[in-house]
Amino acid sequence: MANPMEQFAVETIKPLEVAGYDVSFTNSSLWMLIALATVSAFLFVGTWRPQLVPGRWQAATEYLYDFVRKMLDENVGPEGRRFAPLIFSIFIFVLACNLLGLIPWIHAFTPTSHISVTLGLALIVFVTVCVVGFARHGLHFFALFWPHGSGIVLGAFVFVIEFLSFLSRPFTLAIRLFANMTAGHVLLKVFGTFVVALGSFGALPYVFGILPLGVNIALTALEVLIAVVQAYVFALLASLYLNDAINLH
Amino acid sequence: MPQFDFAHVFWPQVAWLAVFFAVLYFGVVRLTLPKLGKVMGEREDKISGDLSAAKAAKDAADEVDARYHADMNASREDARKAIADAKAKAAKASEKSLAKATASAEAELAEAEARIAAAVDAAQGALRDAAAESAQAIVTKLTGGEPKLDAAKASVAAHF
Fold first, then answer.
1. Which chain B residues are closer than 8 Å to A47 by Cβ?
2. Per the domain annotation, does B123 fall within a domain?
3. B20 closest CB neighbour out of A32, A43, A88
4. Alpha helices for A22-55 (secondary structure H)
């Protein structure tokens, strides 16, 4: 019986080393590349020749773009539109990784089930937020952590808490996505194991495997939902953090 | 969990993530999304332009309608006035001709009355002459003296 953690194993396809660092091309890299290729195909086909009255592919890309733009309009305001390409890239990359990793039988790997990948994505957001915040407000950016209208002692106390919570943002962002993806895939694998174990019961073959199989079908639907929702949550939190940097509340 | 085996999974994944995300952001999204944004903006402009053109056309139509109604009301008023004028004129004309007819009838009546009065006078004059002559003849026969005709006439006139 396969270990439910085996599916997260990173296997080297082509060993590489740059400046002493191991940067081998792995199955994780391969599925990131597949995600990139899928997204590129989707976007290039959808925007091949943009029409005033869109076709199907264009309507699909416009729908996603509009979704991201509306999210930024609501959470950041008019200045948020400048960051639409970045938030869109993060959203669609996470979405593609999440969804492609759910495809059965083809040894799909979910890069977003690895905290290294999600932390990398979260750091892109964090670095952008810091750069934008300091570029727009200079040292005044630290006012973000200072509570309005409080005394110096309480203010300093809250400042420390707010600052630590700000520093923890990339980690919570990364762990949320990684934990959701990992838990979902573990659950699917565990129930898949049950299907085999109960289905191969000698006296009545197949009969008892039906129940975990039904559970697995329902879980697959749930995981598709979670894949979309987590991509949305990642992009939404990224835009909320950007809002802090731009508007300092 | 393989995820926490950072010595083996961190750099290979982060390095390729950086490469692929850079390609995605600079090579795909930055090339394609502006095209979409442009066409979406054009569509919004076109729709709002069409809407404002439709609104302008509707305003113009409303104005024409209002002018039509105003014209209709004005001409209805004119017609009413013309009818009233014609009525008044006709009434005046018939009054005039009636007055004329009345006047000519009165004139005829007066003439006829005058003629009757003249005829009565003439008849009375002849009667008086006859009475005077009769009286002269009677006096002559009774007295033998012949009175003057004028005296007889005066006497007859005094007795009438």
1. 32-33, 35-36
2. yes
3. A32
4. 27-46
